[in-house]
Amino acid sequence: MISKAEKMLTELVLIRSAENDSMQPVTNYVTKVMKELGMHVRNYGSKDNPAMIGQFMENGVMLSGHLDTVPIGTTGWTKKQGEMIDGVLYGRGTGDMKGGCVAMLLAAEEMVKAKTPFSLCFTTDEETSMAGAAAASIDPAVKNAPAVMVTEATDFDIVIREKGLVQFEICTDGKSAHASMPHLGENAIVKMVDLLQKMKDLQIPPEDPVEHMTLTVDVIRGGTATNVIPAECVVEVDVRYPPEMNTSAVLDEVRKRIGDDGYEIKILHELDPVGTDPSIEAVTTLKEVIGPDTKVLAVPYATEMVMFKSANDKLMICGPGDPTSCHIPDEWIKVEDVAKAARIYADYCAKMAGL
């Protein structure tokens, strides 16, 4: 199975699927594999960013993964895309998360042979909107699944809880003037610097980022020329918050620092926190399959697990790859771990089906 995993993963990694790439080549690839296995494939989402559900028999576990990646980037890489060295495959998407997607397809081949019921969900906009997963969540295969497992990289730990997310803009307005006559203008960047300084304490990383809120200022735009007083400044802020909070509570914390006047806030993107009871059969069975030392834990980031929340409450994340290798130059995964994941998924789906 390792040689199959290497071949398929290399092929998928060499199909670029970042936000500005066409998703048709990568979706054609997985659709062809699923149809050749005799699976019934249903499409959801938009034409440019489709989601696909492939089903084999009814009421089986659903495995879910996304085919899109962040951009490769232009600096920091020392390995070629799809380069294999000592059992490690390098390239954008190896860990996040074409490795997990390949494991799903390899497991599907084994499960079809064994007549194990299961379904697969593939999406193409996880790194941007997650709208595909939301659209696919209405499928009966999601609702009727004894478990929905997102195959993101967890190094085979079982993730049952993830934080909520809210991303928003803060905008300050000023008045343009010639830089030689600043008394005639009003500097929007200076206003923004003052606001950011007032919320500096919220930007200090907590000792436990899984249990406490984190806030990072990640984008700033302002000014048009060096000799023009800027009339506008905008920052984009990312907040990850624990289950006891919500968007309103996050914005209350921000406003406590910066007041209510002199700026505007616009919500860009929101995701609820989500969690699964660790004592349910779906979780305990997976731990039995992987091994007694497997950790069951929470994470500070968001995945498409939350998009299935309205349809199914037996949700978890478990997949091959080191999560710290994602979104970096020389992204990598051990090919043997992809094959291992395929075996775990096939065994788990069979046990959950009572086989």
Give an overview of the whole structure.
The chain is 30% helix and 25% strand. By secondary structure, the protein is an alpha/beta fold. The chain has 2 domains: 2-162 and 273-352, Zn peptidases (Aminopeptidase, 3-Layer(aba) Sandwich); 164-271, 2-Layer Sandwich (Alpha-Beta Plaits), CATH 3.30.70. The protein has a 6-stranded mixed sheet. The chain has a 4-stranded antiparallel sheet with strand order 10-11-9-12. A hairpin with a 2-residue loop joins β4 and β5 (88-90). It starts with a helix and ends with a helix. The model has no long low-confidence stretch (mean pLDDT 97).
Kindly report how far apart the N and C termini lie.
22 Å
Spatial order of strands in the largest sheet: 1-2-6-3-7-15
**Beta-strand residue fraction:** 15-25%
Largest sheet: 6 strands, mixed
Shape by Cα distribution = elongated
| Oligomeric status | single chain
Structural class assignment: alpha/beta
Q: Ranges with pLDDT <50 over ≥5 residues?
A: none
The CATH topology assignment of the largest domain is Aminopeptidase
